[in-house]
Specification:
It is a single chain. The protein is of the alpha+beta class. It has a domain of 82 residues: 2,3-Dihydroxybiphenyl 1,2-Dioxygenase, domain 1 (Roll). Helices cover 28% and strands 33% of the residues. The strands form two sheets. An eight-stranded mixed beta sheet has the order 6-7-8-5-9-12-11-10, with helices on one face. The chain has a seven-stranded mixed beta sheet with strand order 2-3-4-1-13-15-14, covered by helices on one side. Strand 11 and strand 12 form a beta hairpin.
């Protein structure tokens, strides 16, 4: 890993402060291997925290005690979390990650690494919308859209509305930007009659809480829908925040579809509404199992109940 310059460190600190929303990747039993791969491939990368299954978590999931549960990591300044959750969900390209590259050499290097045993969605080439662009699904199932030129936010999550959600991108963008503060639509392009489906979103850049996201309607109906294999964690400081985001994002959605702070919104996108203190409570040396047991009984997370479980 390359040593960061002061300017890069300052930019990383700034980005960490504003990253309210963290992508969360669900793997079967590949988290450690996948995270080590990503940290090796991307610059400005590191593994931050690794948690392991305790007695309660192992009992609930059937995954061996003391095996890796989650890994929090950072690549190109973007925070991620990955979990070994078992073969319940499978990652698909409805949520992918744009990688904004500053040079042709970098995009070529990343393509070479990410394409090893992967699946090409769009060949790395010159296109009318980019000097160089390619879309690859790596060997772990995660999709990356590599593009020139560089932007300040190197990695940007992208929602692709396909299957049952086809042509709902604009509605979803308006929904999300109405919920999160410091949010706006930066650029929105629609299909015309010549290409179609007319009016659907070709490409939209927007921000949520100052973080950049992309949304698009699939040019062709790929028959895929969003699923919990990739979710978005909303990090909340207070119970009021948890209540607010839970109530807003469950409107028309499925709050009971999962436990432990998970929900699916009305477009099928999965979110986790999580208190920032959760990691500290779950990793408590003596009472972490109590916090885990309490969390497993909840749908919407309750900070006081989690703290009481540790303090009892």
């Amino acid at each position: 890993m390359k040593t960061q310059t002061k300017a890069e460190l300052d930019k990383t600190k700034k980005w960490n402060k504003i990253q309210k929303i963290t992508p969360f990747l669900w793997f079967d039993n590949q988290t450690e291997e996948a995270v080590n791969f990503y940290v090796l491939v991307f610059k400005n990368s590191k593994i931050k925290i690794t948690t392991r299954y305790g007695e309660e978590g192992a009992k609930f999931t059937g995954i061996p005690e003391n095996s890796v549960m989650t890994m929090a990591f950072q690549i190109e300044g973007q925070n991620f979390v990955a979990i070994n959750g078992g073969p319940v969900f499978q990652i698909n390209p409805t949520i992918s990650f744009f990688v904004n590259c500053e040079t042709i050499q970098k995009i070529d290097r990343l393509w070479g690494k990410l394409s090893e045993n992967g699946t090409v969605m769009m060949e790395l080439d010159s296109y009318p919308f980019a000097e160089k662009y390619g879309w690859i699904q790596d060997k772990y199932g995660v999709s990356w859209q590599l593009i020139l030129p560089e932007r300040e936010q190197k990695i940007v999550p992208c929602f692709m509305f396909s299957g049952d959600q086809h042509k709902k991108a604009e509605e979803a963008i308006n929904f999300y930007t109405s919920i999160f503060s410091d949010s706006k639509i930066i650029q929105l392009e629609r299909y015309g009659k010549e290409v179609g489906p007319e009016g659907a979103v070709v490409h939209c850049k927007f921000t949520l809480n100052g973080q950049e996201f992309i949304a698009m309607d699939s040019h062709e109906n790929m028959g895929m829908n969003f699923n919990p294999a990739i979710s978005m964690v909303v990090n909340c400081e207070t119970q009021d925040e948890i209540d607010f985001y839970w109530d807003k994002l469950t409107e028309g959605g499925l709050e009971g579809a999962q436990q432990c702070g998970w929900l699916q919104d009305k477009f099928g996108v999965s979110w986790q509404i999580v208190p920032t203190v959760l990691g500290e409570l779950l990793s408590h040396p003596d009472k972490g199992g109590n916090a885990m047991q309490a969390m497993l009984q909840m749908k919407k997370l309750d900070i006081k109940m989690l703290q009481d479980a540790v303090n009892q």
